[in-house]
Design goal:
Layout: E1 3-8, H1 18-30, E2 34-35, E3 39-42, E4 46-52, H2 56-67, E5 73-77, E6 86-89, H3 100-107, H4 111-122, H5 128-139, H6 145-151, H7 160-169, E7 173-181, H8 182-192, E8 196-200, E9 202-205, E10 208-212, H9 219-232, E11 240-244, H10 250-255, E12 258-262, H11 266-271, E13 274-276, H12 283-286
Parallel strand pairs: 6-7, 6-11, 7-8, 11-12, 12-13
Antiparallel strand pairs: 1-4, 1-5, 2-4, 3-4, 9-10
Helix pairs in contact: 1-2, 3-4, 3-6, 4-5
Cofactor: Mg(2+)
Pathway: Amino-acid biosynthesis; L-serine biosynthesis; L-serine from 3-phospho-D-glycerate: step 3/3
EC number: 3.1.3.3
Length: 299
């Protein structure tokens, strides 16, 4: 069949049942669709439902109605070129749970002021470049030791290690691309096994934070990273999967063959074609058709 409707939930909940998948299949049939049997990628967590003769938007709406608000993500995908050959991932609030500028600000006791700027910038309400200059400016003069103290607070997003390890085992090139700081991307990339990383660089002078190196890497740099990685690997952006949560991720999400907004800001969810709102980062694997026994830590 020409389309796949994939249902995914949080593996820590694993509440996806045959009854729910059958309710979605029935809804597609009522929309005059041709519907195939459910293919369980991971019982309780993810399944594929092949279908034809229903427009993707109508199929997604029918599925969400049938699910009645259950915490299940719905993706409408094509079977061809489903498994991508490169991953380009945002870091903060995506691969890790933290927003590192916010963490630095709270450590410096100006957290609320900086966090509000971050929230508005990530939701597309403020210019990203001016917002990061303003936030770094507020931290100017703070001791450089602050950077290492805050690094101890980093927490990986659930499923991050499984995502990167599984993709690496299947020969996928993995790039970590952040609008944050290389003081943190270097360590996270090494810890998880990313093939490369890029991020902004904080200037430290006389043992204190002095500013940010220009040019600042943001929306355009992430899009360019996607294109560069594809070119270097001899593939196209259509052969890549990208993931992020903020407004400065939208350009790369829109150009990637599979661009997923992960637990994203509301305006980003509205603009993105694909959203994961409930699952963890292993949802990116299920979206590509990986099965439970292929996923690191899920066997």
């Amino acid at each position: 069949m020409q389309n796949i409707l994939t249902l995914i939930t949080d593996p820590r909940n694993a509440m996806l049942t045959p009854r729910l998948s059958n309710a979605v299949r029935d809804a597609l049939a009522l929309a005059r669709g041709k519907v195939g049997p459910a293919d369980w990628l991971d019982p309780g967590v993810a399944c594929d439902i092949p279908f034809d003769n229903v427009a993707p938007a109508e199929a997604e709406a029918a599925a969400r109605t049938a699910l009645r608000g259950m915490p299940v993500d719905v993706l409408i995908l094509k079977p061809e070129n489903r498994r991508k050959q490169a991953l380009v991932a945002d870091m903060e609030s995506t691969i890790i749970r933290n927003e590192m500028l916010d963490e630095m600000a709270y450590e410096a006791e100006i957290g609320e002021q900086v966090a509000e700027i971050t929230r508005r910038a990530m939701n597309g309400e403020l210019d990203f470049y001016e917002a990061i200059r303003e936030r770094v400016g507020l931290l100017k003069g703070q001791p450089a030791s602050l950077l290492d103290r805050v690094a101890e607070k980093i927490k990986l997003m659930s499923g991050a290690a499984a995502l990167v390890d599984t993709l690496k085992q299947h020969g996928v090139y993995c790039a970590l691309v952040s609008g944050g700081f290389d003081h943190y991307t270097v360590g996270i990339a090494a810890q998880l096994g990313f093939d490369e990383q890029q991020a902004n660089h904080l200037i430290v002078e006389d043992g204190a934070i002095a500013g940010i190196r220009e040019p600042i890497l943001g929306r355009e740099a992430k899009l360019e990273a996607l294109r560069r990685v594809a070119s270097q690997k001899g593939i196209t952006p259509a052969d890549c999967i990208a993931v992020g949560d903020g407004a400065n991720d939208l350009a790369m999400l829109g150009e990637a063959g599979l661009g997923i907004a992960f637990h994203a800001k509301p305006k980003v969810q509205e603009a993105a074609q694909y959203n994961i709102r409930h699952g963890d980062l292993t949802a990116l694997l299920y979206a590509q058709g990986y099965r439970r026994d292929e996923i690191s830590g899920r066997g």
